[in-house]
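I am writing to request your help with a piece of structural work I have in hand. I am sending you one protein, given as its amino acid sequence and as whole-number tokens for its backbone shapes. Kindly check, if you would, that the fold set down in the tokens agrees with what the sequence suggests. You will find the record immediately after this paragraph:
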Amino acid sequence: MVPFIFLIILGVALIIATYRDILTREVPDTLSYGLIVVGLLGGLIVALTTADLAFFLERVYGFLLGMAIGFAMYYGRQWGGGDAKLMMGIGAIFGFNLSNFRIAEFLIFLVLAGAVYGLAFTLYLALIKHRRQFLPAFKADLRTPAVHRLRIGLVATGVLCIILLIFVPWELKILVGFFLLALYFLVYSWIFVKAVERTILVKEYPISKLTEGDWIVGDVKARKRVVLKQRGTGITLDDIKLLKQAKVKKVTVKEGIPFVPGFMLAFIALIILEHYGLSIIKIIW
């Protein structure tokens, strides 16, 4: 059980974080740390006043689960540091135990909302905001030898699937058809996303604009000497200081899509579902 006041605080924090993420592509650490404090310290206060130690331990387990998920997504280069820290705060608020599915339901909604929101935002960037910049690059990518080889592979796979449809039962025909459609969708989605990254999300930043957690593309050099090597995590404050000391003027950075709106959508979906007394885990199973 999560106290109502905890949910109110989380909702307000997500609204602020969403606004800041869209506006500045940053999530203030104070929001994430504040949620962690509310979850753990608030959980301890509730546990002491109700003599229910399990309530506090649930917040600790939720925080640790949120940390594990955040680290996995951060080092997998799917989230920035702000998103990972926010997940820790959400875990501390929701808590976790084997009979409390709230955080699991939130993660399911996060995957669904994140996929829909991410696709919608990417389409907006490519086809509306940066249409003139993106479409020529995307058409050029479709004419490259690598994509041509992919098309040949897709055609060959399609022919094999069509032949297979002749010999399999009706139930398997539907499955084979879905497999073929999914394969085509995934391949062309990959080409689309790569074109978006190359033409829209990869930009040159002046050093003064860099913030902790930004993703550097390629090694950074000054006077033909490598000052900072590209790595699988975002840059640190020490890295930025090092670049300034080396008098580097600009670096190439890969911007991420602001993902916190996905957190907000998942939270809203969870609250609506609980309002009607439903559980997505129970629905699935």
